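Sequence in, structure out. First:
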Amino acid sequence: MAKRRVGFCLSDKKRKRMNLTAFADLCGHRGIEVVEIDLCRPMASQGPFDVIVHKLSDVIVEAEHDSQSQHLLANFQEYVSTHPDTVLLDPLPAMTQLLDRFASYRIMNKLQNSLRDRCVCSPPYLEINTSDQSAIREAVERKQLTYPLICKTRVAHGSRSHEMSLIFSPAGLSDARLPCVLQSFVNHGAVLHKVFVVGEAHFTVERPSLKNFPLGPCDRKTIFFNSHEVSKPESCSHLTALDEKTPRLPPPSEDVMVALVRELRAELGMALFGVDVIVNIDTRTLTIIDINIFPGYEGVPQFFSSLLSHIESVLEHRGTVPPPRSPAALPHQAVL
């Protein structure tokens, strides 16, 4: 029986962090050959591939202004289009929309409606493209966003995407770095639940997060921070320090998490992604605050075995998977 071949198209950083060599050894014992794809060479000469696992975020973002990245992306897309039997983990259109927080926040808003009976929500938010301060203030009031506001870059990839800020008053809105998303901050007891999805399986890892802040506008200066540093497992930032009297919330219900992941998988048509959720300290509502493409899976010891199981399942059921829902079905959100 011929070996099944799985191509991996990852950045050097992602490949090392994942330890692809160790994963290839694991696959080899199950009759699966792992091939590292070089986009600088024609892919047809490196194939055939039964499955391709990729994270082309760098290439997709840079292709907007870099001709070499455009060439690399075209090389990849040409191979995929001429080899329809090759399964792609995950579809490029699905991944591309998650690189844009304007698009991913519309998805979160849509999930809020479909999971309302599960007490799942996403905070009110606003897409900002203008520097007109009066227009921004008017939109914040119209959308009934509450202070403090958390400000995130529109592009959800790269080191700059982790640069965020907390804005405490209308005057602080001038600190927003455009284009961006403004989102009502939700007090959550400085605990972030990172949900890592691998096919049918999911794993929830607890991480530090921002501490609670008084609700409502105040004259406090804008706080700039790096979300990656704040939410590292070993983080001890002053921004995550809680008062000892603050009650510790119970973790999210597993039934609710299963429903959330099931809905997201159907909506995105993806198998490798993460979702960041928090629990509102006042209402105990599960709140979705971000969706991530092919995350690092730090703290998930079962990642290799789960990924291998999903790849084997894909190979077994190839050609029988239904298409994902169309991204065009997303509701429109006003943009400033």
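Second:
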Amino acid sequence: MELMRFDESLPESPSRKRETQEQIDDTYAQIVEKYKKSKLIPWRKFVETPSFMNLVGQLTNEDVIDLACGEGFYTRKMREMTQGKVFGLDYCENFIKMAKWQLNDSDDIDYRQADCSLPISGIPYQFDLVTPTFLLQNAVTEERFEQMIRNIWNLCKPGGRVCGMGSSPKVPADALLKEHKYGRSFTTDPDTYFKRNSSKYIVRIEDKDADLDISLVLYWYSAEHYENIFKKLGFINFRWVEMELFEDTENQEYWKDFMDGCSLIMYEAFKPMNAN
């Protein structure tokens, strides 16, 4: 999603710099406010976020890196939970700028722009927990998909854990239609989706209360492909973890279509202690 850019070529006089910073702050404040509203979309508030944080579990002193961190929603949550280092990487320059802006001059989260489908360099640490949140669904080829997982391996400490999340590879196209009432609609190619890796499809996310209407181009990979590449690169105990409904449990009938064959899923894997 392309976000508003600010002009970095303005004169450098103190008064103009102050005026420019105020414009930047105002622009980002508006964008961030709108983006934060998107996190309050019911399926995100009651299903996605609590399910993922439940999978992450309790943290104390662990070092954490979030791949495809966006504007830092999950990195900020994990910063509150651990005394260790917290990093966030994202391909989108404006997301990284938004994430840094929200730190309010703090430096307790290290945000960096990086294409996680290419070899990642310049990160001088390995991490106890790697969280590829909505990352692998963006791999345009099988080679890029494998490189993403290779990056996850390289960034993970021996004995470390991976907690990932993204679009489910297990949901056929005809089952996606039932999520329209929750503000999620899908456009797929019936000749390739659910049949061939790297199948392109589009997810449209709408919510009137959040003033949100975006379309994301994503790529489908089979569950077997996920499992095989994680195993090939050395990870062990890979498992799929289904989403759960939290908080709004009194409306389980309403959520039945969303939860039954949910288009979102999580996964967990471990790097062996004796791995290089």
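Remark: The chain has one domain: 14-270.
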